[in-house]
Write the structure tokens for this entry.
Amino acid sequence: MNPIKLSRDIEERYRRYLKTTFYFKEPDLRASFEEALNSGYLSKGPYLEATSVFKRGQTPRKLFTHLLGSQPDDGFLKAIDGDRPLYRHQEQAIEGVLHEFNIIVTTGTGSGKTEAFLYPILLHLYREFQEGKLSPGVRALILYPMNALANDQRDRLGEISERLKKEQSSFRFTFGQYIGETPEDEKDSWRNARDHMVKRLPGELVLRSEMRKTPPHILLTNYSMLEYLLLRPDDSPLFDNGQARWWKFFVLDEAHQYRGSRGIEMAMLLRRLKQRLKEGGRFEPFRCIATSATLVGGEEGDKVAVAKFASDLFGEEFHKENVILGETDPIREGGSDSLSLDEYRFLGDVIREKKEETRGRVAELATKFGISFSQNEDLARIISELLQRDCRATNLRQLITSNPTEAAEIAAQIFAELQDNERLPALSELVELLLKVKDFVSNAPLLSARYHLFLRSIEGAFVSYWPQKKVLLDRRTQDSQGIAFEVALCRECGQHYFVGPKDFKEGKLVEAIRDPSHVGFGATFFRPIEGTVEEDDEDDGKATNNKQVFQLCVRCGEMGKSKPKCGHSSLIHVVRGESPKDEDRADQMAKCGACGYNAAGRDPVREVVHGSDGPHAVIATALYQTLPIGRKKVLAFADGRQEAAFFA
Ligand SMILES: [Zn+2]
Ligand SMILES: [Zn+2]
């Protein structure tokens, strides 16, 4: 898969979709609309961005053994990838919490933030299990700003539980997501209890009744549900009857979301919860953990502010030493020589096919770059070293790490010696290669890159006449000399109409009011009759006989039954379209004046505006078709329930 080609493909399909959906009958407008779609207005990118490589620390096996004073059982270690080195910030977080500090972890995406708070909690549960104290009862509360974020962590917890079972550890823990959708009991068909029970993960509690009877060790919820839980007497088994004493951890995921008034609300809620727990018999201190992607820019001075922010939020003590930042490994400086595109291609082939007979040429290149290696050194290691000395590959990695840049711009810089049209394909090949080769010290690929492509939706098409007649996709004309009129198109014949306000009599032809709650809601449609109105036209100065015909100045938008008094000479005739009798259809037209189409009582015209369903379907389909078989997975985010439902 070539992401740059894919971007072009998606863009092309999107453009084709728009071109066929919005048809202009008039050939020059059709051509102009096409030109506007081709002008680069529709898309931005692709951008290329690489994630940083985070510093590694000890393995959980070593760290947990140290913190517990004895080695945990092997099944538990296997369930949490006990032999893969932790990131340095995860290690610090686990140590901090186990040494009874409140902590804030702020690192980039893909740096294992979840483990930074889950592992200390699991370790606490494991310790209670060893001491024979792990009875039902909430130990940790994890609060999320959005349920979607909780779903990922629910999956992660289910995965760990599953592996505990598989690896035959005798340690088990429970968790439950208590949110609006959580069914009351198995009979709650309104909240799809059956569905929840079928999808139950190992260790998971899925019903409210279960969670009240045997509260989960880890409780996932959100602000509104927690507030509700504190008010409802039904849910007191979570806090009361001796249950309060188990509570220990409060986790706020994505804590940067709680700034301003949301932060104040959350702070109040946490204080109420702590009060309730204290009254219920929790005497030991609480441990608070916050995660954030964007709280700090990494500067020392900011740590004080972050600690203060967290102290205010939780009402607990945080110090600047408790702010843990993700530490990244800098990219090693390369040499001054670079390989050629052909040589990258050759290395790519070697990696794909792993042919030993190519060893000679790899060795030759390596020697040229001053790399010494033993007779039977692993080819992958030699190639890794070679690419880390390669000046161009190093420049590329430095350029895009944590700094999204337009692919075309990077390509021009990195492959300056190539022809214009060869640069992007060359860049995409080099990126592919660097994704496949890993650094043998950090064990991470030389590049963890992603492409971003932005597509823009169309919010109307506009026709301007000055300095020449053309279609614009933006209301404001770029040349700002003339005025542009919004157009609507007949769904049947493609005749264009200028859209004006409801009950338009005379004056400037301005925008229609689209807000249905506004008293002026509605539109009037005017079909232009081409050919200019002569200065000495017979109806000059007086109203035309036909009450549906108006004169429009295409220079300034002044319009009336008689000749506008603006003094411009660029006048055309327009005919007002017939409005439907029905007041509910104030923003529609009765029938097309050009072809007679009446859409069987619905709207025969439409503005050049599309909902999101069509384009989303086009984009998702293009992506899906391009993905290799067996790896077809498209992840879509939507900010509306309807959109989400459409995608599902
Ligand atoms: Zn028509
Ligand atoms: Zn005028």
Remarks:
- The longest helix spans residues 147-166.
- Residues 332-455 form one domain.
- Residues 535-544 have pLDDT under 50 and may be disordered.
- DSSP finds 20 helices and 21 strands in the chain.
